[in-house]
Write a structure and sequence with these properties.
Layout (H helix, E strand, L loop, with lengths): L1 E6 L3 H10 L7 E7 L2 H11 L3 E5 L7 H10 L5 E6 L4 H4 L9 E4 L4 H40 L8 H10 L7 E8 L3 H19 L5 E6 L2 E6 L6 H15 L4 E9 L5 H13 L27 H20 L6 H14 L4 H20 L6 H13 L6 H15 L7 H15 L7 H8 L3 H12 L3 H18 L4 H7 L5 H12 L3 H5 L2
Parallel strand pairs: 1-2, 1-3, 3-4, 4-5
Antiparallel strand pairs: 6-8, 6-9, 7-8
Helix pairs in contact: 2-3, 7-8, 10-11, 10-12, 11-14, 12-14, 16-17
Length: 516
């Protein structure tokens, strides 16, 4: 049924139109009446009519003001204007508002009936066209989905071409862009549809292609290749505008020339989205990751990989201890490249950085009383590792946090730097310390650092390290520790080697020293 609202300030006219016009036989029903434009606004919002019969002159808000207000508000309604002879010229202004027609008062019943019939036919035709349009969109959308999602059974290219013609999708080129909303899983599907609605006006309105949703993606099928960085940036900005404040990642699967290859472009776009952690930020991504290791790099065994991880921990910790901040970020980048070479995905890399960072933090804070605030900051940082969308951000945040947590050990001249190195040896004599390791951490050549050490202490590095170890060994022997335990405790992996070193510096064996 066609719904009608009558708006006139004369009660008799309103009553007369309701009773004298054979509404039901015309396929219509009067759902409400109103005495002026202001009342009509409320009624129309509530009843959502198809037709409004409105007097041109009314108090509060006249007929033209009402029509103008409804048109500007986006209402698609059909209007019939009623006017007196004196308002005939005035009523002609309503033509610009798309008014269906106007009738002079007093209203002729036959003329009104004829107008209602014509307007009903117009509405029915519009509804039929809208229904066909919806069916066309649905059919095209179904066909588009069948092209985007690989079918179990490969369809004959000739049949696909025929369907493409039928759905008006036979283009010279196709390129799929997949947009993935970075929101909770519960909201992702709804956001994908909202994003689709926001992009349709731009993409479909400007004949650039089609927009659909294949959860969790909003999918753009473009009818021309995205050649050049500028075009990609323009499209990325359009997606950002449609997304408003919603975080997202968008990727293209590259251009293809045949309908049967559209699914390949979509698959590549999805893969690029999944690899976005390794790619550039705020860009429309391509089919290949931005940050990738050499494909021919051999993967290490589990034991070797563990050794390499321990080496990264060692180098990071020692570099932070001696205040060599310049090597920290390169070391973190080196670690990231190693994890990639080992075939780690996003989750595994985050786990590796959690382990790496946690180990370095424990070494940096060993023996120090950490306040509750600092403990919370450490916990927040470690948990935050899993929240990063991009590897670049993870590296930058890890770098920033480790520097902030490390002791304030920025070198101030060679004297301060040398003092740090001596303190470092006394703190870490049990480790496998080597001059070349310290040289690398301090950005010196091994030869230069060795000469500097000799000039400052009067002894070579290895001699100085041996004396520190032997001095500590004597203390442990005095405490009653066994010789092999002492050797291990001061950094010697071989008991025989410890014997020879001890005798060289003390003139007697460890046993003789303990039992003179």
């Amino acid at each position: 049924m066609i719904k009608v609202v009558i708006v006139d300030d004369e009660p008799k006219l309103r009553q007369g139109l309701q009773t004298l016009i054979p509404w039901e036989s015309l396929g219509c029903i009067v759902t409400a009446t109103a005495a002026n434009g202001k009342e009509a606004l409320e009624v129309i919002e509530e009843k959502a009519p198809d037709v409004v019969i409105v007097d041109i002159r009314m108090p509060v808000m006249d007929g033209l003001q009402l029509i103008e207000h409804l048109r500007s508000g986006g209402h698609h309604l059909h209007f019939i204007i009623l006017s007196g002879y004196a308002d005939f010229e005035y009523a002609k202004q309503a033509i610009k508002y798309g008014v269906f027609g106007y009738l002079l008062k007093p209203v002729d019943i036959d003329e009104m009936t004829s107008s209602i019939k014509r307007i009903r036919e117009r509405i029915e035709e519009e509804r039929l066209q809208e229904e066909w349009r919806k069916r066309e969109v649905i059919n095209r959308d179904l066909y588009l989905h069948s092209l985007l999602v690989p079918q179990e059974k490969t369809e004959d290219p000739a049949k696909l071409r025929s369907k493409a013609i039928e759905a008006d999708l036979l283009w010279t080129s196709y390129e799929v862009v997949a947009v993935y909303p970075r929101v909770s899983e519960v909201d992702r599907s709804d956001v994908a549809y909202q994003l689709s609605n926001g992009l349709k006006a731009k993409i479909e309105g400007q004949m650039m292609g089609l927009v659909t949703v294949i959860p969790p993606y909003t999918v753009l099928l473009l009818n021309a290749p995205l050649r050049g960085r500028e075009r990609r940036e323009i499209l990325h900005n359009e997606i950002r505008n449609a997304a408003d404040n919603v975080r997202f990642v968008a990727a293209t699967g590259g251009a293809v020339s045949a309908p049967e290859d559209i699914c390949k472009s979509f698959l590549k776009a999805q893969e690029a989205v999944k690899q976005s952690f390794f790619s550039e930020k705020n860009r429309l991504l391509g089919p290949y990751p931005f940050f990738s290791p050499a494909l021919d790099s051999p993967r290490l065994s589990a034991d070797k990989a563990e050794e390499t991880m321990e080496e990264f921990i060692f180098r990071l910790y020692y570099s932070l201890e001696v205040g060599n901040q310049t090597v920290i970020l390169p070391l973190l980048n080196e670690a990231a490249a190693f994890f990639l070479q080992q075939g780690q995905d996003e989750k595994s890399i985050k786990e590796s950085f959690f382990f790496l960072s946690n180990a370095v933090i424990h070494k940096l804070t060993a023996g120090f009383c950490i306040e509750l605030k600092e403990t919370e900051e450490v916990s927040r940082f470690l948990n935050g590792i899993y929240q990063h969308d991009h590897l670049h951000d993870l590296l930058e945040e890890t770098y920033r946090f480790l520097l902030a947590l490390a002791k304030d050990s920025e070198p101030r001249g060679k004297e301060q730097e040398f003092k740090k190195m001596i303190d470092f040896i006394h703190s870490h004599y049990t480790d496998n310390l080597k001059l070349e390791t310290l040289a690398g951490l301090l950005n010196y050549s091994t030869a230069y650092l060795g000469q500097l050490f000799k000039n400052k202490t009067g002894e070579y590095f290895n001699t100085y390290l041996d004396r520190v170890r032997i001095h500590k060994a004597k203390e442990l022997l005095d405490q009653g520790m066994k010789v092999y335990e002492v050797a291990e405790s001061v950094g010697y992996t071989s008991v025989n080697y410890f014997y020879s070193k001890f005798k060289r510096y003390e003139g007697c064996s460890p046993s003789e020293y303990r039992n003179p």
